[in-house]
Amino acid sequence: MTSIRSTVLAAASALALTACGTAETAPENGDAESAASQMPKAEPLGLEDLPTIDAGLTLGETAPLDSVFQTEDGQASLSEIVAKGPAVLVFTRSVEWCPFCQTQLKGINGIVSDLEQRGYTLYGVSYDSVESQNRFSKNQMLNYRMLSDESSAAIDAFGLRDPQYTEGKAVGVPYASVVVIDTSGKITAKSVSGDYRKRPTNEQVLAIVDSAS
């Protein structure tokens, strides 16, 4: 009996260690559902719990209004976008190969109406092509627009390029960020994640918007 019990306990410990290792070394590639299962379970966390870093334009600064994005309808400058109303830009790495981004973009689809009630329009921003963004948007039935910044020019203008990537497909990706901009172009709230695997929950995104000055 002692031998059997020891064997069972050893197997359970091995499984627990394996599970922990998987969660801490989540691959960048793979489907969004796999990434979601590896991310921490949602808890009622406040903004102070977000692993943010100091990067990019600061609160009160004017966003790069002359930045031009590609869309399925052609082009749209940031000045044209905010002229229609305050905007919430969610900068993300890739709709094609980043499962954490895919999970986030699918998730924030659930707060489009909450943001609209607050007077804001939601936009997703990535360096993917318009075609890739459109394919993802249609497959996931997103209720907000994606903005393509293939050259990463807007990402650079916001000061959000992740500098750790100097070669490979990730060159030019932004830090996972949420930036709130008013109709004058002023940045009124922002959150820049230092860890691409940890994104603000929907509740935290709404809290970021509600904190806008």
TrEMBL record:
<keyword id="KW-0049">Antioxidant</keyword>
<dbReference type="InterPro" id="IPR013766">
    <property type="entry name" value="Thioredoxin_domain"/>
</dbReference>
<comment type="similarity">
    <text>Belongs to the peroxiredoxin family. BCP/PrxQ subfamily.</text>
</comment>
<feature type="region of interest" description="Disordered">
    <location>
        <begin position="25"/>
        <end position="45"/>
    </location>
</feature>
<keyword id="KW-0575">Peroxidase</keyword>
<feature type="domain" description="Thioredoxin">
    <location>
        <begin position="57"/>
        <end position="213"/>
    </location>
</feature>
<keyword id="KW-0676">Redox-active center</keyword>
<dbReference type="GO" id="GO:0045454">
    <property type="term" value="P:cell redox homeostasis"/>
</dbReference>
<keyword id="KW-0560">Oxidoreductase</keyword>
<comment type="function">
    <text>Thiol-specific peroxidase that catalyzes the reduction of hydrogen peroxide and organic hydroperoxides to water and alcohols, respectively. Plays a role in cell protection against oxidative stress by detoxifying peroxides and as sensor of hydrogen peroxide-mediated signaling events.</text>
</comment>
<keyword id="KW-1015">Disulfide bond</keyword>
<dbReference type="InterPro" id="IPR050924">
    <property type="entry name" value="Peroxiredoxin_BCP/PrxQ"/>
</dbReference>
<dbReference type="Pfam" id="PF00578">
    <property type="entry name" value="AhpC-TSA"/>
</dbReference>
<protein>
    <recommendedName>
        <fullName>thioredoxin-dependent peroxiredoxin</fullName>
        <ecNumber>1.11.1.24</ecNumber>
    </recommendedName>
</protein>
<dbReference type="InterPro" id="IPR000866">
    <property type="entry name" value="AhpC/TSA"/>
</dbReference>
<dbReference type="GO" id="GO:0008379">
    <property type="term" value="F:thioredoxin peroxidase activity"/>
</dbReference>
<dbReference type="GO" id="GO:0005737">
    <property type="term" value="C:cytoplasm"/>
</dbReference>
<keyword id="KW-0732">Signal</keyword>
<dbReference type="GO" id="GO:0034599">
    <property type="term" value="P:cellular response to oxidative stress"/>
</dbReference>
<dbReference type="InterPro" id="IPR036249">
    <property type="entry name" value="Thioredoxin-like_sf"/>
</dbReference>
<feature type="signal peptide">
    <location>
        <begin position="1"/>
        <end position="25"/>
    </location>
</feature>
